[in-house]
Structure formats: C-alpha cells, structure tokens
Amino acid sequence: MLLELANVNINGIVWSDRTFIEEGILHVNKKEIQNLLLRDNRLSDVKIELSSPGEDCVITNVIDVIEPRSKASEKGPEFLGAVDPYGVIGKGKTWVLKGVAVIVSEGLTFNNSASQEIGAIIPMKESTSFLTPYSKLHNIIVLGAPANGITSKEYKIALKTAGLRLAKYLGEVAIGLKANSIRIYNLDNPKEENLSNLPRVAYIFQLLSTQYEPIEGDPVFYGGNIEKIVPTIVIPTEIMDGAITAPYDSRYMETYFIQNHPILEELFLRHRKDFIFCGVIIMTAPNNAEEVERVTTIAANLVEYTLRAECAILTKAGGGAPEWVMMRVAQKCEQRGIKTALAFLHMGIDMTQPNTKPTTIFYAEEVDAMVSMGAPLGTIRLSKTERVIGKKEVFEKFIYKQEFPLRYIRGAFSQLGNSKLKAIRY
Amino acid sequence: MRIVHYLNQFFAGKGGEEKANMLPEIFEGAIGPGIGLQKLLSEKFKIVATIICGDNYITENMDSALEKIIPLVERQKPEFLIAGPAFLAGRYGMACGGICKSVSEKLGILAIAAMHPENPGVDLYHMDVYIVSTGSSIREMNEALYKIARFVTKIAEGKKLNPIEDGYIPRGIIENVEAEKTGAQRVIEMLLSKIRGQKYESEVSIPKYDRVIPALSAKPIKDKLIAIVTDGGLVPKGNPDRIESINATHFGMYNIEGKQILSKGEFEVSHSGYESRFVVDNPNRLVPLDALRFFEDIGRIGKIHHTFFSTTGVGTGITNAKKMGQKIANILVSESVGAVILTST
Is A46 part of the contact surface with chain B (CB cutoff 8 Å)? Predict the structure, then answer.
C-alpha cells in the first residue's frame, strides 16, 4: 500500500470571512466552523479560538491534539468510521497542514472550583515552549458545551468527533495547493528484489490500558472502541492516515503523534535498508491476569507465525500496570527466539532502588534492551497569563501560584517516541 | 581542604575481631588506606585526622558512639569526612553510612562513604549520603581509593555529579535529561545492534529483588495468637497516621479489641491503586475480622491480636517496604503472635 502525504506548511493563522490558505497563512472562518460542528445536536455551543507560538496564552483541559488532514477527494474519507462512513484509507494521496493543530478542550464544561479540574494544559509562551511540541504549532482550539440531557459519555464522544471533523475541514483547504514537500510511505516489497537477507521487524503498539474505565463507544479504531479487541494486525499507512485516534483523554498519547508516529517514521526510513518492516500489531493492556496471558500469547503468535518477524519493537500506554503486559509480550517473543527492544515512559519507578539506571516494575531477565523515555516527574512555575482558553478562573486561582506538575502539560511526555527525554538517577 | 577519615579497627591496623569493641579514638594525619588516598589527592586536600572505632562497638551503640565521634570531627573543622572503603564488610559499611549521615546533618559538611553496592550499609544510607561504589574486597583497594579521590576532587569543584560517570550509588533522585536522539530513534538503533550481535546498553535495568523463602505454614493454629496485616490501605476515618495513598513510608496499628466486626463508616481507604468502594462498604472484606471472630468463638484458632497492621502497597519502594516489614515482624514476634494473615489488593 502506497500512501502519499502532500505537506503544506502553515506559518500563521488569522480570522477571516472565508477559510483558505494564502502565502502560508491559514485564514479561518469561525462562523462556518461553528455551523459545521453544531450540526451535531449533542453539542449546544461551540467556541473556536486561535493561538500562535509565543503568545502569552494557556490552553486548559486539553483532551486531544489533531493534525489537519484530508484525502485528495473532497468526500474524504478522513478518520474513517469516526467522521466519514465509507472509503479506503492508508493509500492514495492525503493533504496535510504542517505547523498547525486542532486542540480539543473540555474547558467549557466543568465548574470553576478545584485546581485539578484544569486537566492537561498547553502553555504557548516562548519561555516555556521547550516543554511541549504543541506550543510550537499554530493552534485552532475547539471547545464545546453539552446539549441538555446529554450524558457525559455522549458529550465526550461528540467533543472528540468535533475535533476530528474540524481537522478534516481544515485539511480540505489544502487540496490542490502546491505542496511544500511530498512524503511517500510504501510497505510493498517487489517480488524481484532479493531482500531475504534482511531481518523482519514488527512493531507492537499498545494503544489502551483498561486499568481506568475506558469511555464506552469511544471511536478509536476505524470509529469503533477497542476495549475488547484482541491483538490485531494493522497496515502502518492506515494508522498514519487516520485509522486510529487517541483514546479519549489518553495519558501521554495524542492523535497528532499517532498520525505522525515517530516509531513508524523511523521504521519506514530504514525499511528495505536495515530491515524489512513487516507490520504493526495493535493491542490493549487488560486489567486482569487471565486476559493478559491470553492477549500476550495472541500477540506473540501473530509476530511469530503471521508476520514471521525475527525481531520486534514494543511500546506501551497508560500507567504502571501496562508495563507488565508489554513485558509479557516481549518475554514470550524472546522465548521463541524473536529479539525485542522496548521504549517507554516510566510510571512505576522505585525511587529507593540503588541501581544506577531507572528500573522496571517487572522482573524478566529475557527483556534486556530497553530505552528510557523519561519519567513523568518535575514541576514548573507558570507565570500569570493574559489569556486563558478554557478555565480562566481556575487557572488564576490555583495554577500560576504554585508549582505545576509537568505531567499535566500536554506533550511534555510521550509514550510514542517523539521526545528526547531520558530518566537518570542521581 | 581539610579531611577527616574514618576507619574501623581492622583497616586502621589495630586488630581483628578481638578489637571490634574498641571505643572511638582520633589520631593525627592519615593512617592505613588514608595514606594511599592522600597520595592520590592533590595538595589542596589534606587528611588532618583519622577516627577509628571498633565495628561491634559502633553498630551496637550507634547513638552513643556518634555522640563521641561528632565532637571529635567538629574540632578538626574539616570540609570533608570520608568513611571507608568498607567493601562488603557489613558492620563497617553500616558504621560508615551512619557516621556520614549524622556528620552531614549535624555539622553540615560533605560526608562521603565508600563500599560495595551490596553492603547492607547501602540499603540503609544511600538515600542520605553519597556512597562511592567499590569492589567487594581489600584486593580492590587501589581502585576504590582512586574512585574516592576522583569523586572528592569533582565534588569539591561544585560540579554536577552523575552516578554512572562518577561511580556513586544513586540517592533516590530521578531526573529527566535530554538525549541526543529521540526515543523512537534510540529504540530502533538498540534493536538493530541487538540483532546484529553488536554491543548495546539497555537504558533501563530490572530491579534487584531479594529471594524470600516462604515460612512454613503455622499448623496447628488452634492455640496460636493470630494477627492481620494488610497492604490495602485500610485506616480509621480521618487517616490519623496519615498513611500515604501511594509510595507509603510507614504503617498504622489499629485497635480491634472487643470489636466483633469492622463497621462501615468507621474506616476509609488510603490507597490510589485499586477500586476501593467495596472495602469502604464492608471493611471486613479486606481485614477479615468477622470470619476470624467466628473461628475464635468456635475454638478453631487461638486469640486474635488486639490490633491490625495496615499500610499501602502501591508504588511503594522496596527499601521502605522492607523497613516496614521488618518493624512489623519484630512487633509480631515480641508479642508472641503465632500466625499472620496477610491480605493484599
């Protein structure tokens, strides 16, 4: 399957009475977007805000970040199953707005009482822009209020879908423009080439942990929820082309870096040079031992017999418990002679251990190649800001006056491999 | 810069086990390993005095030994205290750690111990003092002294230290640093090295766990005093001992004398790692007092201990868990408890 991404660079965003791109500036028609998103009768109100890098502004209650994209045909499909009902993704041409993101915020809903209700934030100021890649983007923020009689679950799904819809709407603006760059992703291996001497690599992508109750009906994989999926083989270009969105309010995982998955990017770069990238398995981390044993065996079986991989990369989702699930897959692979390397953000680190390196919460001697992507520790003192998109009152009452944990800054930590952070013991 | 060096009786050349009860004494200048250390240090550093104490005396009388040692150190007005190297010698390692902790807390000077990572002094003191990591025996003395000298020189310059480069045992602090490449690039490069049979170094290690041999079952239990210990975080309403809901550092003991059951409303759960609603509704499902009273009444077990023990087992460091376990076990033994029910969540 061959996917072509046509990237159009955006260097600024402004309000306008029409949505279009001119000389790298994205003009945005607020009314048109509101009308589009308010067609969903689960939402009673939609607010759209803009914020560019360096602005003295903080966005609160961020539940997802999405890159605007659209298939070359105006009918889509984009975010198949979640936004558009029919079509094929993972191949063909997709237009991408580079340097822009849709930020989905719950900031219109909660009462302004407690500090924890600020959720995850994105500070846009220059002085804190090193903290998260999202503060370096021109952001279009969508906030929605629930319609009367709508349950919290229905509201959350509607809000997330509004973000996806807005990302598609903005992506459509790029169709037919001159692309600043074109990237081709192709997993095909022409038969005449002799690549048999290269090792076959699989990527095992843990997408959701059920240690916290997932939202019923959350459109994650082709518009369906994945709480009960068994490990499934997915073509990597499908993932990059909107087949997967981040589970609602995921920790350390946003749709933006699923669309621009750093591990998939690297695997494609080296595909047919250093190895054969033979496929991706998506899976969840169940919350009970029996299910963990079943799904980890299924995943190892797929790696060994279906993908016929000789080695595998693994990452994880969620908190500390999914580290165990990732380990069991790696251990089962290693026991079958399939070599593994793991990369993860440490969630259950034992500070008191005298080891020189950060440690795992599991014990498995077979698992001997692990990359640290940092630990979600540390705080920062945020200054008072002119503009709060979301919950101004909460921010002013609680947030800027105290040490703010970095883990509540969207994008400060990631399970998907984009960050250079590494945890070190001192 | 003035340094006071601490040695045990053996390394100071005073004698072996027969001198292990020696009281603290101070001598001018460097002695034994201190002479070698002085040679490795630049002229800026001078070992002005050496304090010597018997291993048994100090480990059995830590408080009174420290009361004698601290003023001896203080009088020398040193910038540094160096203790050891103690290698794998357990009592010596504990003495080095204890003195360094106390000296740095009370006198505010930099105190550095040196020993093997498996010396019991490490578990006790690595969070409080810098411990330079050494080999296991006296055969590795030269290397140990070289590492101490390098460490002292670097710390005196006020440079930021790193356990891997500077050879000390981490002190329970974790920080994020920026690597040259992203996590995605590093994990793929690591996998490539692994499949090509090239050298690679994992950035994460698996923790060291002690092997615990399960105790023999305590049968018969007809006449035994039974205690309940839980890591499910059950505490009286208001959490009077402030047991942490994650990474607990201490435990509580709660009286159940005269109680037939644990009543709803009297307890709460301080534990952020599981759905605890069912325990709040009926605390007996975590601390099974109702069932134990039944067996006590019909004579199947002896008495039930008058308190239950409770802490929180989520994100709890092994060092703290071990300390709590040892304390609880000591209480249980001293109160003649014959069998324990451990409940975990």
Answer: no
Q: How many residues does chain B have?
A: 345
Per-window interface: A 1-40 vs B, CB < 8 A: none
User: Which H or E element spans position B165?
Assistant: helix B163-166
Q: Nearest CA of chain B to the CA of A201: how many Å?
A: 9
B287 in Cβ contact with B305 (< 8 Å): no
Residue of A nearest to B189 (CA): A341
- The answer on pLDDT for A65 being more than 90 is yes
Residue A224 DSSP one-character state: B
Distance separating alpha carbons of residues A31 and A17, to the nearest angstrom: 8
Cβ within 8 Å, pair A357-B202: yes
Angle value at C-alpha B50, between B47 and B53, nearest 5 degrees: 155
CA distance A53 to chain B (A): 22
Asked if B320's CB is within 8 angstroms of A275's CB, the reply is no
Q: How confident is the model at residue A49 (pLDDT cuts 50, 70, 90)?
A: very high
Q: Does residue B148 carry a pLDDT above 70?
A: yes
Query: Testing the interface with B: which of A204, A356, A365 to mutate, by most B Cβ within 10 A?
Result: A356
Among A96-100, A176-180, B14-18, name the one with the lowest average pLDDT.
B14-18
Residue with tokens 């910038």: B79
The pLDDT-based confidence of A192 (bands split at 50, 70, 90) is low
Residue B148: in which H helix or E strand, if any?
Answer: helix B141-156
Nearest neighbour of B172 by CB, restricted to A265, A320, A352: A352
Structure tokens at B182: 């992203």
Q: Does the predicted model carry a pTM greater than 0.90?
A: no
